[in-house]
Amino acid sequence: MAQVTAALVKQLREMTDSPMMECKKALVEADGDIDKAVDILRTMGIAKAVKRAGRDTNEGTIAAYVSEDGKLGALLELTCETDFVGNNPKFTGFALDLAKIVAENDPADVEALKACPMGESTVDAELTEMIHVIGENMKINRFQRVTADDGALGSYVHLGGKLADIVSFKLGKAETAAADEFKSFAHDVAMQVAAAAPVAARRDDVPADVIEHELAIYKAQAAESGKPEAIQERMAQGRLEKYFKESVLTEQEFVKDGSVTIGQLAKNVAKSLGDEIEVMSFVRYVFGDAE
């Protein structure tokens, strides 16, 4: 049996806001596996929330770039040594320039990005120059390019560059992308992604293993009720439906107006513009959260 240390109990408590003794019991039952212990606490209805465990990361920023026509975009995480530099406009501007290069050049990885041209030099050379000028080590940590060939992109940056995302929309008419009403809508949806942290844009996009995992939790919770199996199944399916409404972007209540979902909001804006608008996907970065 794995040893359940005080540090492990503390970590589980911070992740779930659960009582210390219950965390210890769950860890003992899970043989020290913290993910299994979280599931045990959830099944018991004790876990109030599951927070991602803190990770030691450098300072820095996430840049979100979207082209003028809304067709190309990229998120890029650039790290440095201190928060002072991480908030420096020269540093954040450099990160945005790098994100633009990612969108326009589609490099395969960080090394390929460093070889891309930047002005009359290369990304690698300019990064080295920035390190010398600012006096701190810097690292291109990760990036992701996003495209919207049949529509347009919307972006949002929050918490001084510590959280950012890009959302992809499918449009029926190309001119819709330039409409102020659509741009405002796209920004609001991207803000929703930042605030509500959905797991997928659409129900069909939720990974099967995630659904299976959640349903197993709900069935275990329902079994605790002691009710007939048929009722337990309905209880579990009802909780899964609630999960979808809370975790799928198009089914979430709009943070600015709880009377409509994001899917309904898209239909309303589409009707107003005489077009069809579909929320397709999103990429969401939290600083220091790379796997």
UniProtKB/TrEMBL annotation:
Residues 82-85 are annotated as: Involved in Mg(2+) ion dislocation from EF-Tu. Its main location: cytoplasm. It comes from the Bacteria. Residues 73-288 form the Translation elongation factor EFTs/EF1B dimerisation domain. Transmembrane segments: none annotated. It is found in: Cytoplasm. Pfam families: EF_TS. GO terms for molecular function: translation elongation factor activity. Keywords: Cytoplasm, Elongation factor, Protein biosynthesis. CDD domains: UBA_EF-Ts. HAMAP family: EF_Ts. Belongs to the EF-Ts family. Associates with the EF-Tu.GDP complex and induces the exchange of GDP to GTP. It remains bound to the aminoacyl-tRNA.EF-Tu.GTP complex up to the GTP hydrolysis stage on the ribosome. PANTHER family: ELONGATION FACTOR TS, ELONGATION FACTOR TS, MITOCHONDRIAL. This is Elongation factor Ts. It comes from Thermophilibacter provencensis. The lineage of its organism: Bacteria, Bacillati, Actinomycetota, Coriobacteriia, Coriobacteriales.
